Amino acid sequence: MSVVAGIDLGSGRTKVVLVDETGVVRGRGVARTRGDFEAVANEALASALEEAGMARDQVRYVSTTGLGRYSVPFRDIQITDLTCGARGAFFLFPSTEFVLDMGAQSTRAVRLREHGKIKEFHMNEKCAAGSGGFLERAAKYLEVEVGEIGRRSLESTAPQTISSICAVLAESEIINHISEGRSVEDILAGIHHSLAERSLMQLRRVGMKGGEVTFIGGVALQAGMVKACEAKWEVTIHVPAEAQYTTALGAALLGWQRVRKTQAASPAGEGARAA
Fold first, then answer.
1. Cα torsion for 221, 224, 226, 229, to the nearest 10°?
2. What's the half-sphere exposure (Cβ side, CA atoms, 13 Å) at 189?
């Protein structure tokens, strides 16, 4: 058996998904992203291979995506993370019309056309207050583990408003809420509602008036965030079970697409690794 590896070198984590020729995921791996992109890609790939019980020579093709996609010398192809995220979301939920990808440093709203291709997109990268990185900083102020944010947000009874669009000013609002004795749960829920409102604005910019949205990226794993989005967006929301791996999945699927095209174009019907 051979697989294609999709490697998503994100700003916070590097994720790897191994997909076989039938589209079945055989393994996943993750590592914290650092400056040596080649090393971190190898680390996450090794983790995925271990989970799959496979050897490195069973990796037929490597597709990279994310901010470090050009910095992996053993790649066969690099593909933008917008394209990969859209492809992965469409593969998991073929009826989806929009994708909201919220990662550590940016949030992207995408409108899809046929076959999961991108029709229109809008990105928010100007301020961390609109991304997952802001949640991590808020967790430090509130002395909460990042993994607990989603659960504790669900326990809120009176979400506190976070109105600033600037990360620095939003952090000041959080400090004010703390000094006023507001509960951690209510502050976290307020942050989730703020992020959901900003995400809704982005989705509307790409034409969302209804339809179905697939929510991907690490922040989609937070139950409190999903609840806030359901309340604000008022549309059908799909959340993949492994939402943080969706872009890596799309990279692997597109890698297989390239392999098949190479096979079809080869006189011998055999694909070769790209230079």
1. -150
2. 17
Distance CA 202, CA 122 (A): 6
Average pLDDT over residues 214-228: 95
Question: What residue ranges do the domains of the chain occupy?
Answer: 3-81+245-265, 94-239
Tens-digit pLDDT profile for residues 36-75: 999 999 999 999 999 999 999 999 999 999 999 999 999 9
* The pLDDT value given to residue 140: 83
Calpha distance 22→3 (Å, rounded): 10
Q: What is the pLDDT of residues 122-138, one digit of tens each?
A: 987 555 555 777 888 88
Is the Cβ–Cβ distance between 162 and 170 less than 8 Å?
yes
The pLDDT value given to residue 209: 92
Residues in contact with 9: Cβ distance below 8 Å, sequence separation at least 6, in sequence order = 33, 37, 40, 41, 64, 65, 66, 67, 68, 69, 71, 72
Secondary-structure class of domain 3-81+245-265 per CATH? alpha beta
CATH code linked to domain 94-239: 3.30.420.40
